[in-house]
Amino acid sequence: MPHSSHALRSDKIVILGAGPCGLACADELTRLGHRDWTLLEAAPVPGGLAASVVDPAGFTWDLGGHVVFSHFGEFDRLLAELFAPGELLLHDRSSYVRFRDRWVPYPFQQHLHHLPADDAEACVHDLLVACQRREQRLPVSADFATWLRGMYGSGLVERFFGPYNSKVWAMTPERMASSWVAERVAPVDPDEILAAFSGTAPPARRWGPNSTFAFPACGGTGEIWRRLAARLDGGLRTGARVVAVDTAARTMTLDSGERIGFDHLVATGPLNRLTAMTAGVSSSMLAAAGRLRHTTVAMVGLGYRAPTTDERSWLYFPQPEVPFYRATNFSKYAPANVPGADTDTFSAWMTETSMLPGTRLDYSRLISACDQALRRHGLVAEHAPLVSAHLEPIEHAYPVPALDRDAALAEVVPWLEARGIYPRGRFGTWRYEIGNMDHAVKMGIDIAHRLVNGITEELLTPVSGAVVAAGGQS
After folding, report:
1. Cα(331)–Cα(85) distance, integer angstroms
2. 13-16 and 264-267 as β-strands: parallel, antiparallel, unpaired?
């Protein structure tokens, strides 16, 4: 039965998933005076995809390359409440792309003068041609590969965008939509590109919302969510995995057999899983949800008995012979990420390797390949002792903006929302473009206000019964 948007203070709200979105929702419900909520988390600890772990050697690792930056005042307020001055370390981003025998500053397309002469000439020529043709606007339905060629030309696509994005997404850009791009891909100004070759260009502008970022001084990214969970006054249950949802009876069933009633359900886990375990879903909806694509990522953390001397933040690797697409200088983020916070003795590199779901991993071989690649490209000294190797397989890492994603969402989401089930967060909305931690917090806070006071959500707006990202967000 459809649910109206008027105040719902007497209704029971159940939240699935104690990641950033679920925790922020529970916290905001408490702030609004709505105490009838339950937060269920299948894992033994809160944090979701933003959790952190400490390995047996004493190195702290994140589940992927998180950094703290914000589009929203609500997220800023939350951080100010949870951390005292000095407990968040501030960094200027320093990122590079490994290309042939050199490091090219990021964004790659804004630093073509760093390329070998033949590569630079080909990239600039094709870029200028692409810029001249931009009056012929690409259709909104253009695939990502077409969009890239239209924006940057074939030279850049062949040398960087094609191979890099194929590694990140475990899928070719031809199979992806382009509507998600927004601020995720840096623009170029051809005049500035040409001026850089003559040495007359002004200093490069820092691009992107994460050009400066923060990081917890201790505990990794997961420290944010541990602190937020700690201030919730009850209501959080860990180790509670939901296996079935009955929309007619307004109940859900845990893997223990326990049943829990709800009036409204905020579901922050993967939308395809939610659809599969919800009673009454049609075969057409199941098929639509089954078409949603995601990547699995193997995070390999490598700790060395070698001092932290590299000043860079993270590095990109489009080469197929390098297993990972990104390497993060994790001991640079915070000294406490290594044993004893001793960066004069230890260094830590966190690598991310993307693959299709279900790919069988040879853990030992992947760890060895990542270690060798770090050494081969000069990030780790040849004879530096490897003292820790930690692998975290992240089954649902990133939702892929595939060509048919929006059509699938338009079929699944309205049906769920009409029955009081609200998919939110990175994998609830299945929208990479609003997949950062700050977006998740904003979604959690907004849905709390909608359910309690009937206030329209700001980040998501209803379109034909579905919810889509409001314009301009990453």
Report:
1. 21
2. parallel
* Single-letter code of the amino acid located at 312: R
Residue 308 and residue 269 share a domain: no
What letter represents residue 394's amino acid?
I
| Rounded CA separation 144/138 (Å) | 11
Percent composition of the chain: helix, strand, coil (DSSP 3-state, to 5): 35, 25, 40
Q: Which residues contact 68 (CB under 8 A, 6 or more apart)?
A: 79, 88, 213, 214, 215, 216, 221, 224, 437
Question: Residue 443 is part of a domain; what is its CATH number?
Answer: 3.50.50.60
Integer CA distances (angstroms), 336 to 60, 139, 204, 418, 447, in order: 8, 48, 32, 47, 35
The whole-number average pLDDT for the span 281-287 is 96
- Give whole-number Cα distances, 462 to 189, 303, 469, in Å: 35, 47, 9
What are the Cα distances from residue 424, in Å, to 21, 59, 357, 411?
7, 32, 22, 16
How far apart (Å, rounded) are the C-alpha atoms in residues 246 and 320?
46
Per-residue model confidence as pLDDT tens digits over 191-235: 888 888 877 656 555 656 677 899 999 999 999 999 999 999 889
What angle is formed at CA 90 by the lines to CA 86 and CA 95, rounded to 5 degrees? 160
* Cis peptide bond N-terminal to 107, omega within 30: yes
Contact criterion met (CB below 8 Å) for 220 and 52: yes
CB 41 within 8 A of CB 240: yes
* pTM recorded for the entire structure: 0.92
Range of the domain at 328: 294-399
Sign of CA dihedral 190, 196, 200, 203: positive
Measured at the CA of 140, the angle between CA 401 and CA 150, to 5 degrees, comes to: 90
112 CB neighbour count, 10 Å cutoff: 23
Q: What is the residue whose two structure tokens read 């104690």? A: 18
- Distance CA(231)–CA(105), nearest Å, equals 41
DSSP character string of 169-181: HTS-GGGBBSTT-
Are residue 288 and residue 413 in the same domain, yes or no?
Answer: yes
How many structural domains comprise the chain? 3
